[in-house]
């Protein structure tokens, strides 16, 4: 196997490893493909077969050892952006109609009018008072 054939075969191997990467979405195949591309460069520069295999192995294992844990950590993290009802918790609102423990009150929260009830059933909030939204139950804001 001469030098030109060796680098061509490594590139064919890299392309062949790219196919299961696309089909299965397993990033390990991409890391092996990068290792094959590194071996192709080594073959193109005149490195022997043993050196080519060592470069392929070293680059592939290094990528799997370094990149895979980082990717796994990013996959398991919760998104930083909170949306929907979760985004309203902890915000301040203004009382439009008296709010008490009965749930008959109204507040203006994030530009919208919400029904509201007090977290502490013995507490009441008067019109114009600012309250904090503790939770949302259905279409009712729980405030304090």
End-to-end C-alpha gap: 78 Å
Q: What is the string of SSEs from the N terminus onward?
A: HHHHEEEEE
Biggest sheet, strands in spatial order?
1-2-3-5-4
**Structural class per helix/strand content?**
alpha+beta
- Percent of residues in helices comes to 40-55%
Tally of individual helices: 4
Subcellular location: Membrane
InterPro entries: Membrane_assoc_protease, NA-bd_OB-fold, NfeD-like_C
Protein name: NfeD family protein
Pfam family, one: NfeD
Folded structure, characterized:
The protein has 144 residues and is an alpha+beta fold. The chain is rod-shaped and about 85 Å long. Strands 1-2-3-5-4 form a five-stranded mixed beta barrel. Helix content is 50%, strand content 21%. The model has no long low-confidence stretch (mean pLDDT 89). It folds into two domains: 3-76, no CATH class; 85-143, Nucleic acid-binding proteins (OB fold (Dihydrolipoamide Acetyltransferase, E2P), Beta Barrel).
Structure, briefly:
By secondary structure, the chain is α+β, with helices and mostly antiparallel strands. It contains four helices and five strands. The model has no long low-confidence stretch (mean pLDDT 89).
Helix-strand blueprint:
Blueprint: H1 3-24, H2 27-44, H3 49-76, H4 85-88, E1 92-97, E2 105-109, E3 112-118, E4 130-137, E5 140-143
Parallel strand pairs: 3-5
Antiparallel strand pairs: 1-2, 1-4, 2-3, 4-5
Characteristic key phrases:
OB fold (Dihydrolipoamide Acetyltransferase, E2P), NfeD family protein, Membrane_assoc_protease, single chain, NA-bd_OB-fold, 4 helices
